[in-house]
């Protein structure tokens, strides 16, 4: 199999495409029992919320189930807690509370109020191996779209 072909290997369980993740991230987040089974150097994260697979090999036939991870995957069904920032252990609920109760409107506001993104080691703590900035921004955007929340001083609910 060529490297180019590896980039497009789908999840062996649900057959949907995953997102490429560095091996160091996979090793950092798997349980000790799962780590000893690792083979290959290229991995992907299955993004299907209904699939029980977390990581799978792109250059091997290895796959790992969600219960073999040290952290819950925020997008999988029944994930608890749902982390917005894995490095600082800030949850989605923490971000929502900062928005609703403290008036946070930006990622910088969220960082100041919750302490998110303060202990950054994303390649070893975030399942994607990337910064959580986008995850936090997505939560802010969801809250802005919610009809139950207002993001301006002239809100009739204030």
Question: Can you describe what's shown?
Answer:
This protein folds into two domains: 9-68, N-terminal domain of TfIIb, CATH 2.20.25; 83-145, Arc Repressor Mutant, subunit A (Orthogonal Bundle), CATH 1.10.10. Helix content is 32%, strand content 13%. It is built from seven helices and six strands, in the order H-E-H-H-E-E-E-E-E-H-H-H-H. A hairpin with a 4-residue loop joins strand 5 and strand 6 (90-91). Helix 4 crosses helix 7 (133-145).
Topology, element by element:
Blueprint: H1 3-6, E1 18-21, H2 23-29, H3 32-35, E2 43-46, E3 53-57, E4 63-65, E5 83-85, E6 90-91, H4 92-102, H5 107-114, H6 122-125, H7 133-145
Antiparallel strand pairs: 1-2, 2-3, 3-4, 5-6
Helix pairs in contact: 4-5, 4-7
Give the strand tally: 6
Beta-strand percent range: 5-15%
* Silhouette: elongated
Distance separating the two termini: 59 Å
Q: What is the radius of gyration computed over CA atoms, rounded to a whole number of angstroms? A: 18 Å
Q: Do you know the CATH topology of the largest domain? A: Arc Repressor Mutant, subunit A
CATH architecture of the largest domain: Orthogonal Bundle
Helix content, binned percent: 25-40%
Taking strands numbered 1, 2, ... along the chain, how are they ordered across the largest sheet?
1-2-3-4
**Total DSSP helices:** 7
User: What is the structural class?
Assistant: alpha+beta
Integer average pLDDT:
90
* Stretches with pLDDT under 50, minimum 5 residues: 1-6, 152-158
| CATH class assignment of the largest domain | Mainly Alpha
List the helices and strands in order.
HEHHEEEEEHHHH
Give the domain tally: 2
How many strands, which pairing sense, and closed or not: the largest β-sheet? 4 strands, antiparallel
